[in-house]
Write a structure and sequence with these properties.
globular; mainly alpha
Length: 71
Amino acid sequence: MWELIRPVITSWKGQHRSVSGHEGRYEMREIVDAILYQARVGRQWRYLPHYFPPYTAVYYYFGKWRDDGTD
């Protein structure tokens, strides 16, 4: 599945540079995996397992992609 999603995310990242200067801090695949996990189990964001990036980072991308139609 990642091979289908990667071009979309790579293109999006190229058009949306980080305003905080933390480019590349988290792998986009980890962010996508965390979003899919959250969608599957339906937990609150703050209860994402520790092996995912921080929920604040995951929710940041989720919100951006939801708002601009990337999802």
